[in-house]
Amino acid sequence: DVLLFGATDGEGDVIVVVRSPSSQVIVRRKERVAGIWVNASELVFNDAPGFYHVAASAPLEDLLPLPVLNANQIGTDHIAFNPHVLTSLDQEDAFRAALVRNKQRSSLYTEGLPAVDFRGSRLFRTRVALPANVPTGDYKVTVYLVRDGEISDRSESLLQVRKVGFEA
């Protein structure tokens, strides 16, 4: 677990996004052929984060409008996965949902919305659980201060995730 904490410059809500470096991910769909399950189709996404965590002091949809969530890729529903080849929107959505579902099953993407807790009116904190299978690298931690449905301030920091000891 990593404890992230900070202070705001005034009143408002806080959204914390932790994102690992992006990589290419292949999502495959299995189908039953002659009684055997085989990989039938696949879609390659070029920019999928290996780890993605978002926490907020209120539901995302209550804090920001949909275009702002999409533009800043806040929330697993708003991550911009870029498919390697053009495909139909329905097929892309199905593969995208499968990618998010598989990452959530591996605890690499958050399910639900963990809370950002305030201590007083300005101090906040949240916990980020890093599973054993987390990819290593320089993670970007972005903290958004939200007021009146707009991002009023943002702060970015790097978090180095490395394996040490026997696993390294």
Q: Tell me the series of helices and strands, N- to C-terminal.
A: EEEEEHHHEEEE
| Structural class category | alpha+beta
Strands, total number: 9
> How much helical structure, as a percent, in the residues?
10-25%
For the record, give the distance between the C-alpha atoms at the N and C termini, rounded to a whole number: 19 Å
With strands numbered from the N-terminus, the spatial order across the biggest sheet is 5-2-8-9
The number of helical segments is: 3
- Provide the gyration radius in Å: 18 Å
Structure overview:
This protein is an alpha+beta fold. Helices cover 17% and strands 45% of the residues. The protein is built from 3 helices and 9 strands. It has helices at 60-63, 66-72, 89-105; strands at residues 2-7, 13-19, 22-33, 36-49, 52-56, 117-119, 123-128, 137-147, 150-161. The strands form 3 sheets. A 4-stranded antiparallel β-sheet has the order 5-2-8-9, with no helix packed on it. Strands 1-7-6 form a 3-stranded antiparallel β-sheet, with no helix packed on it.
List keywords for this structure.
globular, alpha+beta, 4-stranded antiparallel β-sheet, single chain, 168 residues, 17% helix, 3 helices, 3-stranded antiparallel β-sheet
Compile the SSE list and pairings.
Layout: E1 2-7, E2 13-19, E3 22-33, E4 36-49, E5 52-56, H1 60-63, H2 66-72, H3 89-105, E6 117-119, E7 123-128, E8 137-147, E9 150-161
Antiparallel strand pairs: 1-7, 2-5, 2-8, 3-4, 6-7, 8-9
Q: What is the compact description of this entry?
A:
It is built from three helices and nine strands, in the order E-E-E-E-E-H-H-H-E-E-E-E.
